[in-house]
Amino acid sequence: MTTIRRFCCDDLLRFSSVNLDHLTETFNMSFYMTYLARWPDYFHVAEAPGNRVMGYIMGKVEGQGESWHGHVTAVTVAPEFRRQQLAKKLMNLLEDISDKIDKAYFVDLFVRASNTPAIKMYEKLDYVIYRRVLRYYSGEEDGLDMRKALSRDVEKKSIIPLKRPVTPDELEYD
Ligand SMILES: CC(C)(COP(=O)(O)OP(=O)(O)OC[C@H]1O[C@@H](n2cnc3c(N)ncnc32)[C@H](O)[C@@H]1OP(=O)(O)O)[C@@H](O)C(=O)NCCC(=O)NCCS
């Protein structure tokens, strides 16, 4: 049985096994605490019986005017729990909060251009590549900025792909 609930401070001391994955970014404590304090609705953990951390999602909502959007900062599922639709459930939860509670126009995220499994998952969830961000990761690897329009963006303007790649200093939000 899987329980999905809000992430809390104590979870920061016991989620490290999930973060051993090389594609999962690890941030400093104050970064996670800021998310917990400012966007608690956007931070959820999935647990298996015995309180084992299966995965989590962390995000935020930000922007001005038609750029008001939900953002997925991290989503990860431990290898032994993958391909059970868990990331999909966590993503759907964040999308619902962005759409129904915060009335955002779209949800976006950045993914390494080489992270094919994650890109395939986002495409399955109807995200499109909005733009490529050159050398976004540590000044080396390109990132893909992927977006999904929400119900408020009736004309789906937010997901019209840019015709050229951008550099990190051109990003409005990171
Ligand atoms: C990407 C990740 C979060 C997917 O988690 P998951 O719980 O296994 O994903 P789901 O089971 O919800 O997958 C939903 C759909 O996405 C697609 N998908 C997921 N993983 C995939 C893979 N490895 N290869 C191809 N398609 C994949 C499939 O269409 C899948 O549906 P299906 O299993 O019915 O075919 C997980 O592999 C992970 O934690 N990776 C390391 C961290 C990471 O890369 N995070 C994203 C950083 S931007």
TrEMBL record:
Residues 2-151 form the N-acetyltransferase domain. Pfam families: Acetyltransf_1 (PF00583). One of its GO terms (molecular function) is protein-N-terminal amino-acid acetyltransferase activity. It comes from the Eukaryota. GO terms for cellular component: NatB complex. The keyword Transferase applies. This is N-acetyltransferase domain-containing protein.
